[in-house]
TrEMBL record:
Coiled coil location: none
Segments forming domain HTH gntR-type: 9-76
Domain of life per record: Bacteria
Keyword annotations of the record: DNA-binding, Transcription, Transcription regulation
Stated name of the protein: Putative D-xylose utilization operon transcriptional repressor
Molecular function as annotated in GO: DNA binding; DNA-binding transcription factor activity
Cross-referenced SUPFAM superfamilies: GntR ligand-binding domain-like (SSF48008), Winged helix' DNA-binding domain (SSF46785)
Species name: Kushneria phyllosphaerae
PANTHER family (UniProt xref): GNTR FAMILY REGULATORY PROTEIN, TRANSCRIPTIONAL REGULATOR, GNTR FAMILY
């Protein structure tokens, strides 16, 4: 690998991360059309580098192509939020059950607790808080030891990111609060897979309802 190609890859990744963060935090809202010239100037990269990043985000489910091929930020409605969270709940409750059955359970719980502590420290920094929240749930799936489960969850990561800020900052901060995640860890410490799954399912259902109800209300207001 040449130094030149390494620099190019790094620049693309920096552009990818910056664009993903702008979408996830709501700086680029759902439905917003992306203008290549504006973004390439803002990021200080070539349009070719920008297009590589945009193609990756389209694959992740953060961007969608319109009739003329122009990319825009994906919009998710209230029904789709519920659909995403139903699948997510099934995956993560299974992951929690698998962790509870493992001999390494205590070590895994300690890693999740450390991630929850990180979430608490980062409260107030929206970008880092979102990444810590995603990191907690990704780690939960990783520690399950089930690669198919983890890969399936990864396909939802882009849509989950869209969901986080879709109903506004206040609801996003509530859903990402570290204390809500500590309840999951406390249930896991009881070594009861059924109780842990129930606590996690409630965690997801509460978040999904908050998001879907807000989006439904927004849609009603736009129709008036």
């Amino acid at each position: 690998m040449s130094i030149k190609s390494l620099q190019r890859t790094t620049l693309r990744d920096q552009c990818l991360n910056a664009l993903r963060s702008a979408i996830t935090t709501g700086q680029l809202p759902p439905g917003h059309h992306l203008v290549e010239t504006d973004l390439s100037n803002a990021f200080g990269v070539s349009r070719g580098t920008l297009r590589e990043a945009m193609r990756r985000l389209e694959q992740e489910g953060l961007l969608v192509a319109g009739a003329r091929g122009q990319l825009s930020i994906r919009y998710i409605d209230s029904k789709e939020v519920l659909d995403i969270y139903r699948v997510r709940t099934s995956l993560e409750t299974l992951a929690a059950r698998l962790i509870c059955d493992q001999p390494e359970r205590e070590a895994h719980i300690a890693r999740l607790a450390a991630q929850a502590e990180k979430m608490a420290r980062l409260e107030g920094n929206l970008t880092e808080q979102i990444e810590a929240d995603m990191g907690f749930h990704r780690l939960l799936c990783q520690l399950s030891g089930n690669e198919v489960l983890l890969k399936t969850w990864a396909t939802l990561e882009g849509p989950i990111r869209i969901c986080i800020m879709s109903a506004g900052l206040e609801r996003a901060l509530h859903n990402m609060a570290a204390e809500r995640h500590v309840r999951i860890i406390d249930a896991m410490r009881e070594e009861d897979g059924d109780r842990t799954a129930a606590v996690l399912a409630n965690h997801m259902q509460e978040a999904a309802l908050r998001l879907s109800q807000a989006l439904h209300q927004q849609a009603d207001e736009q129709m008036r």
